[in-house]
Known about the structure:
By secondary structure, this protein is of the alpha+beta class.
Amino acid sequence: MKRDKIKAIIEWTIAILLIFIVIKDSPYFSYYELSPEAAFEKSERTYYYGPSEVLEKVDVDDVQIFLSKYKNWFSATLVNKYAGIFWGAGSGVGGIEIKEDQDITHSWGSSSINENYMLMRYYGIVTNPEITKVELDVAEGYDWDEQVPVEDIVTLDYQLEKHRMFLFHWNEMENDYISLALRGLNNDGEVIYEEELR
């Protein structure tokens, strides 16, 4: 009887050890993390980029967007939630070089989150200290080559924080916007920077 117990304990110990080894070496489990911060750090390591200084985290449903800076580069990296508890790398981990000779350096990206969510993000960093607010003109339901009437233009705005980065985001499945113009304004509402985007 005692011998059977010892044999069962040894068999269960070996089984648990084998299961642990298989899980540990599984690409599924080595890819995912339990925290969004750990997933963000891992995504940068796999890209040989960073470590970045996280300037702001933005929660969007099952996604976190990390606005971050590394040396003379900035990024808006996505980290996606899976199965309700795990976090894995999304898109945008590669940085954009900051152009010091321009008032604003910007980029955009679109990522499919699920069948009902296509996350569009328009982001950048402001180097001109006079600019305190960024505006993005968008319009819904138009093609890139169509003229958009003034009354159909929607202006999104972003008040800058100390870190000087900005982020506009929306679900393209709900708002099929095209980006028209980007502006930087000072405290008095005067336009310091303006760029047509199409």
